[in-house]
Amino acid sequence: MSELHFSRHRRLRGTASIRSMVRETHLHKEDLIYPIFVTEGEQVRQEVPSMPGVFQLSLDLLDEEVNEVVDLGIPAIIVFGVPNDKDDVGTSAYCDHGIVQKAIRQIKEVHSELTVIADTCLCQFTDHGHCGVIEEGKVLNDPTLELLAKTAVSQAKAGADIIAPSNMMDGFVAAIRHGLDEAGYHDIPIMSYAVKYASSYYGPFRDAAHSSPKFGDRKTYQMDPANRLEALREAESDMNEGADFLIVKPALSYLDIIREVKDFSGAPVVAYNVSGEYSMIKAAAQNGWIDEKSVVLETLTSMKRAGADLILTYFAKDVVRWLNEK
Q1: Which of 104, 150, 291, 295 is spaced 20 to 30 A from 60 at the CA atom?
Q2: Structural domains of the chain, with CATH
Q3: Which residue spans adopt a coiled-coil conformation according to this UniProt entry (predicted)?
């Protein structure tokens, strides 16, 4: 029999040490952003029913959570607010004494080194649950921009290091950049939810943030999941308007979009590992159908491999513990 000639790729898989040496994609704690939900009241530590291990926290219990994040070495958090008072224009979103503003001030007083990102939207603060001003059942784009800019300025004034607008109004980055610059916050970066799809994966988050729309849906401002080129148009617009980071949300079903946005823009790209992705893994793990640690690490590594520089994930604390085990 003549000698066969073929490639022996398995030579680089023979031992754990060799596999580690040639590994192309690495997941680090520095890649992670951890979401925190803050709410009114005292001694509130309310687990989100559809998100095991995720809690709404009142300010008197917030320090314990943030201390844990800092001790684990997670470099950044993003703050979502769950207010008591809501109205048709989301006044508590841009009030200097709103729940998000109070939380940011409290966190920065104790942990000035922690990067605090403020989610900048109105849906948690409006009584109708939409991300803007409503007139005759429609979300008005331009009147909403003024309120978003006011919200961003109030969050920067409270001490936010990064503003992360998530509303998907046309011109929202330009309006917020203008508002921040006029108020003297030239150095505050904008982490834009540049590519945000009208996804079915958001359900558990709406439990956590009490932000479900009271009528209709968000398909007039969030993107059609079938569209790819639209994502590039949205990303380009946000960069031209002054965005410093680009978020792709959700992540798992949009890995192709993450790669295209990264290649197209060259900007830092953030993958949002959203609530539905989190809850599916949690449910399967609790039923014994999958190994949670292995699936989470594989999933987040796929986001890094697709081109994400950062990952916003509810698994952040667990991931750091698992990485430390290694």
Answers
A1: 150
A2: 24-325 (3.20.20.70)
A3: none
For residue 1, the model assigns a pLDDT of 57
Distance CA 100, CA 155 (A): 8
Question: What's the pTM?
Answer: 0.94
Contacts of 321 (CB under 8 A, 6+ apart): 72
| Active-site residue, 196 included | yes
Q: Judge whether 198 and 225 are in contact, CB under 8 Å.
A: yes
Give residue 211's pLDDT. Answer: 62
Query: Maximum distance among all alpha carbons in the chain?
Result: 82
> Pick the catalytic residue: 86, 102, 150, 196?
196
Residue 300 burial (10 A CB sphere; 0-12, 13-18, 19+): buried
Count Cβ atoms below 10 Å from residue 26 Cβ, excluding itself: 11
What are the residues whose beta carbons fall under 8 Å from the beta carbon of 178, sequence distance 6 or more?
A: 149
Catalytic residue of the set 102, 150, 249, 304: 249
- Give the 3-state secondary structure of residue 44: coil
Specify whether 249 is catalytic: yes
Helix-, strand-, coil-residue percentages of the chain, each rounded to 5: 45, 20, 35
